[in-house]
């Protein structure tokens, strides 16, 4: 699970980040609203933790911009402004939950897990066409046939299953699977897509990984001739 923290209080942001990493989450942190929106628009995060009072763009405006892009990622809003009107404004701007500072870390973790469950992020498998991806075993399954995926293959396949027929750019896949600081290049994506196409074919899947020039990859169900 990948979480983006958008919080201008560096010490608080970093401490939340360390807490979440200990819980097994991948975490990235940005320190102002404008940059946070740009990161969120990549569509690679399972959850956003968003502060209200920030430079350049406050959390309310950031949430509104994210929702205007039709991104359904859960947003947990953090703020010292705990009045009823502030909470209502936060929820109306697109937040899924509004947590007032100071907060207990146990409550923060409970909120995060609840939002992820609500989004279906804790399911055991995802399906497209006649093929399923078992999230516990990293197996691609089609009828009685199955094949195990490597770690990188699994991450890419899961991302493709989640986005379905929407195009994923090579840059988005690189960022999601290899991370911002990686030396990986677009050829790495092409190589792993090739591996996945062969594994899909080996189990008789009706899924095709199609590519659209300049837009990226998406899944299609192969139609019978």
SSE topology sketch:
Blueprint: E1 2-6, H1 10-22, E2 26-30, H2 33-40, E3 47-51, H3 59-68, E4 75-79, H4 84-93, E5 97-100, H5 105-118, E6 125-128, E7 131-134, E8 139-142, E9 145-148, H6 151-163, H7 170-178, H8 186-202, E10 207-212, E11 216-221
Parallel strand pairs: 1-2, 1-3, 3-4, 4-5
Antiparallel strand pairs: 6-7, 7-8, 8-9, 10-11
Helix pairs in contact: 2-3, 6-7, 6-8, 7-8
Helix-strand pattern, N to C?
Answer: EHEHEHEHEHEEEEHHHEE
Strand order of the largest sheet: 2-1-3-4-5
The largest pleated sheet is described as: 5 strands, parallel
Quaternary structure annotation? single chain
The gross shape turns out to be: elongated
Which structural category fits the helices and strands? alpha/beta
Number of H- or I-type helical stretches: 8
Name some characteristics of this structure.
elongated
Question: What does this protein look like?
Answer:
By secondary structure, the protein is of the alpha/beta class. Helices cover about 40% and strands about 25% of the residues. It is built from eight helices and eleven strands. The chain has helices at about 10-20, 35-40, 60-70, 85-95, 105-120, 150-165, 170-180, 185-200, and strands at about 1-5, 25-30, 45-50, 75-80, 95-100, 125-130, 130-135, 140, 145-150, 205-210, 215-220. The strands form three sheets. The protein has a five-stranded parallel sheet, sandwiched between helices. The protein has a four-stranded antiparallel sheet with strand order 6-7-8-9, with helices on one face. It is elongated, with a radius of gyration of 19 Å. The mean pLDDT is about 85.
């Amino acid at each position: 699970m990948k979480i983006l923290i958008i919080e201008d209080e560096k010490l608080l942001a970093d401490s939340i980040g360390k807490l979440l990493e200990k819980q097994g989450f991948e975490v990235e942190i940005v320190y102002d609203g404008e940059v946070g929106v740009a990161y969120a628009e990549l569509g690679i995060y399972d959850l956003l933790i968003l502060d209200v009072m920030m430079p350049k763009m406050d959390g309310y405006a950031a949430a509104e911009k994210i929702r205007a892009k039709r991104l359904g990622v859960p947003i947990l809003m953090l703020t010292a402004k705990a009045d009823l009107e502030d909470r209502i404004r936060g929820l109306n701007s697109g937040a899924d939950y509004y947590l007032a500072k100071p907060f207990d870390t146990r409550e923060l973790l409970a909120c995060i897990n609840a939002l992820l469950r609500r989004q279906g992020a804790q399911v055991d498998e995802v399906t497209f066409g006649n093929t399923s991806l078992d999230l516990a075993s990293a197996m691609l399954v089609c009828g009685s046939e199955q094949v195990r995926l490597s770690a990188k293959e699994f991450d890419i396949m899961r991302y493709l299953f989640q986005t379905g027929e929407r195009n994923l750019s090579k840059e988005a896949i690189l960022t999601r699977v290899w991370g911002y600081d990686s030396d990986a290049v677009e050829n790495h994506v092409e190589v792993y897509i090739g591996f996945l196409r062969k594994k899909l074919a080996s189990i008789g899947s009706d899924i095709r990984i199609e590519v659209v020039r300049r837009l990226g990859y998406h899944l299609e169900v192969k139609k019978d001739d």
